[in-house]
Specification:
With about 425 residues, the protein is an alpha/beta fold. Helices cover about 35% and strands about 25% of the residues. The protein has a single domain, classed as 3-Layer(bba) Sandwich (FAD/NAD(P)-binding domain).
C-alpha cells in the first residue's frame, strides 16, 4: 500500500471548466450571490430562468468548498428525526419540510436530465447498523418513512446486509432505493454551466471582504463591488466571519475522505454488490461508496477542532481497515478533507437578514440534496413566493455556546458521542 496524493479525487477527475475572471470595478445587478456551491448556483439558476440579472461571487473556484469535496451521498430527509421537526413546527409544517427534502432529490434528478450533467448519478442507499441499538433506530426510521408515505424501503437482517456489503462489521441495515450517490464536483460544475447559459455572471477568485445587508445590499471585494436589489449569503461553513450573526449559528466541522486505486470489477462487487452508497448509524459516521472507476471512496473521522492532521492517509486508513480489512494490500491514491456546517440541532438554518438579504446554511451532513433545494427556495422567496421558504425559516437555532471557546467546548462535548458510539 502506497499513499500517492493528498489532493481530491473529485478535482483530479473533474470535467473541464473555463475559469471565470475575478470581479473588477463597480457593478449593479438584481441579485448578488456570495458562494458558488450548490446553494448559490441553485438560487442563481432559478433566478436567471425567472428573468433576474444575477451575479455570483466566489472566493476560490466553483465547487471549491463542501459542494465539491463531500461524500457524494444523496440522502433522504433532514439530519434528524421527523418527530423533532414535528415538535418544533407542528405536523402540518413538518409535512412541508419532508416534501421539501424529497423535492431536493427530485431536483437533482431533474437537473441532471435537463442540463445533461455527467456526474455518475446512481440510486440506492443503505443505513447500516454496527450495534444492537442501531437495529432499534432502523425500525424507528422505517416507521417514520412509512408514516410519511415514503417507500419502498426494506429492513435487512445480518445475512441480507452481508450479501450486499463485504464486511463483518454490519448486523443489519435499512435499504433506501430512493437515495443515492454521484460525483459532487462534476454536478456542481454542471450547475455552473447551466447557470452561465441562463445568463448568470460568475466571478471566481473574488473573495468578498464586506457586505451591506441593509436596505441597499452590496458586496465588496478587494478589486470591486456589486450593488444589488437582493443579496444571498451562500458560503455556509466557508463564509467565515463575513456576517458574524451567521457565523455564530453554525460550527464548521471537518470530515475526511480517501480514495483507493481502481479495483477490479469482481473485487469492487465483493465489497458493495449493488453499487449503493452506505453510511453507518454512529453519531460520528463512516460513509462509503464506489466511484465510477471502481475506487472505494471512504469518508468519516470527523474533526471538531481547527487542527488538520499532518498525515491524512494515516489518519483515515485505520477506519477503512476496520470496515474492509481485505483492502490492506490496496494502494490509497487520494485523501482530502473539507468543512461541513452543522447547527446545534442538526436542522438547516434559513432566514433573512434585513429587508433584502437571504441565507441558507448548516445542512449538517445532508447538504447534497438540501442545499440545492434551499437555493431554489431562496429564489422563490425573492420572486415573491415565500411560503416554503418561510416554513423552513421557522427553525430557531441558538448560537453555539462558549464564544471564543466554542470550538474546544464542542470538541470536548464530542468525546461523549465518541464514547457513545463505542458502547454496545
Amino acid at each position: 500500500m502506497t499513499a500517492t496524493s493528498a489532493e481530491s479525487y473529485y478535482a483530479a477527475t473533474a470535467h473541464a471548466w473555463d475559469r471565470q475572471p475575478p470581479l473588477t470595478g463597480e457593478h449593479e445587478t438584481d441579485v448578488c450571490i456570495v458562494g458558488a456551491g450548490y446553494t448559490g448556483l441553485s438560487a442563481a439558476l432559478e433566478l436567471a430562468e425567472r428573468g433576474f440579472k444575477v451575479t455570483v461571487l466566489e472566493a476560490e473556484s466553483v465547487g471549491w468548498g463542501a459542494s465539491g469535496r463531500n461524500g457524494g451521498q444523496v440522502c433522504t430527509g433532514p439530519n434528524g428525526a421527523m418527530e423533532t421537526v414535528e415538535a418544533k413546527l407542528g405536523k402540518d409544517d413538518a409535512r412541508i419540510v419532508w416534501d421539501v427534502t424529497e423535492a431536493g432529490k427530485a431536483l437533482i434528478r431533474d437537473r441532471v436530465e435537463r442540463y445533461g450533467i455527467a456526474c455518475d448519478l446512481k440510486w440506492g442507499y443503505l443505513h447500516a447498523a454496527v450495534k444492537p441499538g442501531h437495529l432499534r433506530e432502523i425500525e424507528e426510521m422505517a416507521d417514520e418513512y412509512d408514516a410519511y408515505g415514503y417507500g419502498p424501503i426494506d429492513v435487512l437482517d445480518r445475512d441480507a446486509v452481508r450479501a450486499q456489503v463485504g464486511s463483518e462489521r454490519f448486523i443489519g441495515a435499512l435499504s433506501d432505493p430512493g437515495a443515492g450517490h454521484f460525483h459532487p464536483l462534476n454536478y456542481c460544475l454542471g450547475l455552473a454551466r447551466a447557470a452561465r447559459e441562463a445568463g448568470v455572471t460568475i466571478h471566481e477568485g473574488a473573495p468578498v471582504i464586506a457586505v451591506d445587508t441593509g436596505a441597499n445590499p452590496a458586496a465588496r471585494t478587494a478589486a470591486g463591488a456589486v450593488k444589488a436589489k437582493f443579496l444571498v449569503m451562500a458560503g455556509n461553513a466557508y463564509l467565515g466571519g463575513l456576517v458574524p450573526a451567521l457565523q455564530r449559528r453554525i460550527m464548521p466541522v471537518r470530515s475526511y475522505i480517501l480514495a483507493t486505486e481502481p479495483l477490479s470489477e469482481n473485487r469492487a462487487r465483493s465489497l458493495i454488490a449493488n453499487d449503493v452508497a452506505i453510511s453507518d448509524l454512529n453519531f460520528i459516521v463512516d460513509y462509503f461508496r464506489l466511484s465510477a472507476d471502481r475506487r472505494m471512496l471512504f469518508g468519516g473521522r470527523a474533526s471538531y477542532t481547527t487542527l488538520e492532521p499532518r498525515d491524512l492517509f494515516g489518519f483515515m486508513r485505520p477506519r477503512l481497515m476496520r470496515v474492509f480489512p481485505q483492502l490492506d494490500d490496496v494502494r490509497l491514491d487520494y485523501c482530502w478533507g473539507g468543512k461541513i456546517g452543522i447547527t446545534t440541532d442538526r436542522l438547516p438554518d434559513l432566514g433573512r437578514i434585513g429587508p433584502a438579504t437571504y441565507y441558507a446554511q448548516g445542512y449538517s451532513g445532508h447538504g447534497v440534496a438540501l442545499s440545492g433545494m434551499c437555493g431554489k427556495l431562496i429564489a422563490e422567496a425573492i420572486a415573491g413566493q415565500a411560503e416554503r421558504f418561510d416554513v423552513m425559516a421557522r427553525f430557531k437555532h441558538p448560537p453555539f455556546p462558549g464564544g471564543k471557546l466554542r470550538t474546544p467546548l464542542l470538541a470536548l462535548g464530542m468525546l461523549y458521542y465518541r464514547l457513545k458510539d463505542a458502547m454496545p
